[in-house]
Amino acid sequence: MKKYGAYGLVEVKGESNAVIVVDRMLKTAEVEYVTQDTKCGGHALVFVGGSVSAVTAAVDEVKNNAPCKIEHTAVISNPSQEMVDIVEMFKNR
Q: In what residue span(s) does the Bacterial microcompartment domain sit (predicted)?
């Protein structure tokens, strides 16, 4: 389990849109793809990790220059152990 300074979360509709969003974020900043979770209704929640500044830049890029409709975004800096556990749970599904 790797410790990140921040997690970036982006929710979109559709798996193909999730791939496009991840690609854009990885090309924008020094972030790593962590995991993805699909919710009911075809919503995909993508997690990336990295430094606070890199994650913020990556999330801001897809929010401000959206390659598709973005439902929600968030940057969680200095994630608590409970947040890390939640992300690990998503990874292990």
A: 5-79
